[in-house]
Amino acid sequence: MSHPPQQPPSGQYMPNGRPRPGAGSAGGSPSGPSQPRYVDYGNPRAYDTSVRPASGLTAARYAPARIRQPDQEQPPSAWTTTQARRAQEVSQSANKVPVTTVVSWIVAAMLGILLIVILGLFFLGFVISSSSSPIWWPVTAFLALISLIVIIGIMILADRWDPQPIPLLIVAVLWGAAVGAGLSYLLNTANSILTFWVTGSEAAANFVGPVISAPLVEETTKGLGLLLLMLLGRRYFNGPLDGLIYGTLIGGGFAFTENILYYTRALEGAGEVGLLINVVMRGVLNIFGHAIYTSLTGITVGFVVRKWGTVMGLLAFIPALIPGMLLHALWNLGATLFSGIIALLVMYALEALISLAWLILIAILVWDESRLTRVRLGDYANHGWLTHEEVDMLGTWKGRREGKRWANQLGAKPLMKKFIRESADLASVRQRLLADGANPKVVALESDLLRRLTTNRQALLARAGHTGS
C-alpha cells in the first residue's frame, strides 16, 4: 500500500511547494546537504493551480507533489568551474522503449493504411467520372502536399524548445488527413442530403453544408484527434504550445486531403486555369485556415491541462471547439454570401491579419514554454538538484547555445543535448505533478528523470575534469 508523500515542516514552504528564503532543509540531517540558495524565478502562480475543488469530478485525485531533497549536495556546474574534478562513474541502466512510442507507431501505421485507402477511392472516382487524364490526380496531390510541408516546417521550428515525439506528430498529421477528412466528408454529405430531403431546397442544402455542418462536423472530428493524442501521450501534452503544435498538424493533414478533392473538382470544372486559381486561393492565401481552427482547440485544451490537470482538459474539450467553429463558420459564411472581387479582397486581407496574429501567438507560446522550463527547473535548483547557473543554461536559448558550444569543445555535445532535452522533460513532468497531484506513475517518472539528470551532470563533470587534468 502506497503512503502519501511526507510533508515538510509547516512554514518552510511557500504555497506552491517552493522553499522560503532562509528556510531549513526539509527532511535533512546534520550530515545531509546544506540548504541551497533560494532564487525567485518569476511568477510561478502563472503556471500553478491556485484553487482546486475539495470534492467532485474535478477535484485533485492525488495529494500535492513536493520536491524531495537530493541525497547529497550537488557539485558546482560543470561549465562554470575551471578546477579539474573527477566524478564517480554512475552505472546507466539501458533505456527501455516507451510503451507510448510503440503504440504511437502502431496507430500511425493504421492511420497511414486508412489514408491510402481513402486516397485510392478518390483516385478511382476521379478516373471513372472525369474526362481529364489520370496524370492530373498525382499533380493535385503534389500541389496539396506543398502546403502541408510548409505547415509542418513551421511546426518543426515552433517545436524546437521541447520537441514532441516523432510518432505522435505523424499520428496528428495522419488523423487529420484520414479520419478527420474521411469522416467529415461522409457526415457533411449526409447532412446536405438530409437538408435537401427535409426542405426540398438546393439553396438551403448549399447553405447548411458549408456554414453549419462543416464547422460543427470538421472541428469535432479534427478535435477528437487531440483527445487521442492527449490520452496516448499525456506525458508530452503539457501546455498550450503542445496543443497548438498537435492541432496545427491535424488541421494541416485535414487540409491536405480536402485540397486534393477541391483541386480535382476545380480541374474537372474549369480546367488548368480553375486548378491554378484554386491552388492560389486555398493553398497559398488560405494555407493556414484549418490549421488555425484546430490549433485554437489545442491551445485551449493545452492551457487547461497545464493549469488544472487531465480531467479538466477532457471536460474542456467541447468549449474548446467553439473558437475554431466560429472562425470556420464566419469564413464559410463570407465565401457563401459574397462572391465579388472586393468582398474576396476584404476576406483574404482579414485572413492575412489572422494568420499574422497566429504566427505572433506561436512566438509568444514558445517564449512562454521557455519561461515555464526556467521556473520549474528553478524549483529543483531551490531544492539543491541543480545550480542556478545550470537553470540559466538549460532555461534560455542563449544559455543552451553556450552550453552546447562549451560541451562541443570537450567532445560532449551529444551528452549536453541529452541533458538539455531531459531537463525540459523534467520541467514538464513537474508541471504535470502540480496540475494532477502526486500520481505514483508520474512521481516514478520524475524520480527516473532526476536520476538521469544527476547522471548526465556527473558525466559532464567527469569529462570536464578529464579534459582539465
Please tell me about this protein's structure.
Residues 1-32 and 81-94 have low confidence and may be disordered. The radius of gyration is 26 Å and the shape is elongated. It contains 13 helices and no strands. With 469 residues, it is an all-alpha fold.
List the helices and strands and how they pair.
Layout: H1 99-129, H2 136-158, H3 166-199, H4 202-232, H5 240-285, H6 289-308, H7 310-315, H8 317-337, H9 341-382, H10 388-394, H11 397-409, H12 413-436, H13 440-468
Gist of the model:
The chain has 469 residues and is mostly helical. The chain has 13 helices and no strands.
**N→C terminal distance:** 50 Å
- Residue fraction in strands: under 5%
Shape annotation: elongated
State the helix count.
Answer: 13
The chain-level mean pLDDT equals: 84
Class inferred from helices and paired strands: mainly alpha
Total count of strands: 0
Q: Which percent bin holds the helix content? A: 55-70%
Cα Rg? 26 Å
* Succession of helices and strands: HHHHHHHHHHHHH
- Main pleated-sheet profile: none
Give the low-confidence spans.
Answer: 1-32, 81-94
Name its key features.
469 residues, mainly alpha, 13 helices, 70% helix
